[in-house]
Hints:
Elements: H1 2-13, H2 15-42, H3 48-74, H4 76-107, H5 112-125, H6 130-141, H7 144-158, H8 162-186, H9 188-199, E1 210-211, H10 216-226, H11 234-248, E2 253-261, H12 264-301, H13 315-338, H14 343-368, H15 370-387, E3 405-413, H16 417-433, H17 453-475, H18 480-488, E4 490-491, H19 503-516, H20 522-534, H21 542-552, H22 556-571, H23 578-581, H24 598-605
Antiparallel strand pairs: 1-4, 2-3
Amino acid sequence: xxxxxxxxxxxxxxxxxxxxxxxxxxxxxxxxxxxxxxxxxxxxxxxxxxxxxxxxxxxxxxxxxxxxxxxxxxxxxxxxxxxxxxxxxxxxxxxxxxxxxxxxxxxxxxxxxxxxxxxxxxxxxxxxxxxxxxxxxxxxxxxxxxxxxxxxxxxxxxxxxxxxxxxxxxxxxxxxxxxxxxxxxxxxxxxxxxxxxxxxxxxxxxxxxxxxxxxxxxxxxxxxxxxxxxxxxxxxxxxxxxxxxxxxxxxxxxxxxxxxxxxxxxxxxxxxxxxxxxxxxxxxxxxxxxxxxxxxxxxxxxxxxxxxxxxxxxxxxxxxxxxxxxxxxxxxxxxxxxxxxxxxxxxxxxxxxxxxxxxxxxxxxxxxxxxxxxxxxxxxxxxxxxxxxxxxxxxxxxxxxxxxxxxxxxxxxxxxxxxxxxxxxxxxxxxxxxxxxxxxxxxxxxxxxxxxxxxxxxxxxxxxxxxxxxxxxxxxxxxxxxxxxxxxxxxxxxxxxxxxxxxxxxxxxxxxxxxxxxxxxxxxxxxxxxxxxxxxxxxxxxxxxxxxxxxxxxxxxxxxxxxxxxxxxxxxxxxxxxxxxxxxxxxxxxxxxxxxxxxxxxxxxx
Length: 606
């Protein structure tokens, strides 16, 4: 084995060719160069001893270099070659797994719901042809006329005839508005996508990236904390796998943050406010994330569909549907028991109810903690307001020579070569030995998977948890500011990814896509400005607006709107509160969820 590796290294080095090049360089080339140089410099031929010295020096230097290369290739070079092969293997397998996770999302539904979900996947991810647009919107809405309208508008958008697109919008708006109103009850997500696509004038370039699933990292680390994979939805798993592909393919994700420098007391109050605000955000996110995870779990388990638990609802309204579904499931189990069904026949339903009850209890506990963190946050807000009452203390720093104020900094998030090798090594073992292989089969029509649906879903979630634990110490994924910035970036668009691509083709595709994906900081800068104005009451002057616009691409209109809204709030006498400063947080009406029903526990004991 060792000898065969040595022979392969020698063949790859082309040892004979290297020796010929060395002796040619050491012989005629060195002799001619030394003779001409010495004659020009000293006006005579070089001594024989000097000629022998330079030729010998060149020969031995070259041989030493060849020997060093041979030693490197036979030791570290072999390891590096294996790492490159593993990296190629991993990018190919994760790419296949992304497609399998999308398929698992579709597999959770049946009948019309499966057709609708498949259409949603197409519309969100793939640059469709006109006929593809017709099919997708027809399946999505169940209406051929809607499909024809959207297909017709798609054709004219592609041709750049935007004025005619406006004419079509004016003509068909009443019909689409009526269709949207009918869809809002059963599927708010479908209605939102239909009206958004209809109102578009110019087509968006998906190659610049797509929006990430909100709070997917928060749900993943909540699952890590509780060691409960059911907190992770399949959509979260898909987003995380795409993030891994970006990092392995060499993407550098931009990170924007701000800090205070100057007066010590103000800086301490600033840090206290930031810590308490993050704690409050996390407490709120825990409850809402568990509500969304419970909804996704019940859909994936097959006991209910989108008709029973609609998508696109706020957490408060969604919790009401979930409570009703758990009630219905417990009644079903009791009915099965009354009919004398065996324990095995009730096992599947009881397992779903048991996991659902656990997720619901975690949501109740999460929202119970919100009140405690809210009080600490409001106390920190009050302390910051007292110390920041003087505008000169918290002014926006416009240049690096200012001594005190708010300082904006930019950095990037990426994997070093050592961290990339470590991640690839772990994932390579997991894919080869960790039970993921059954998921990577191409599930053709009529083929029966080797494992059950729930087992495959859990394997994906466990892989995500394993990878998140590996990545966290490398790039700090669990830090609030990192998660906030990652959510503000765009994910690379994988519309060109298909099952028939080879591992090499997938690797080349991902490396090209990370170069094309938008890395702008405009969204991060706008979100940061909102936090600065509404949480820390830091005024945005015209100079600050220009700085954020010119430096990070933030929209001047959005920045001015943020300032105007803050001024209106201040004019009404309303002080900064936790509810106002967390616009992306869940509905606080959930702070008192209905308690777990005794009927659920009774059904589990039957």
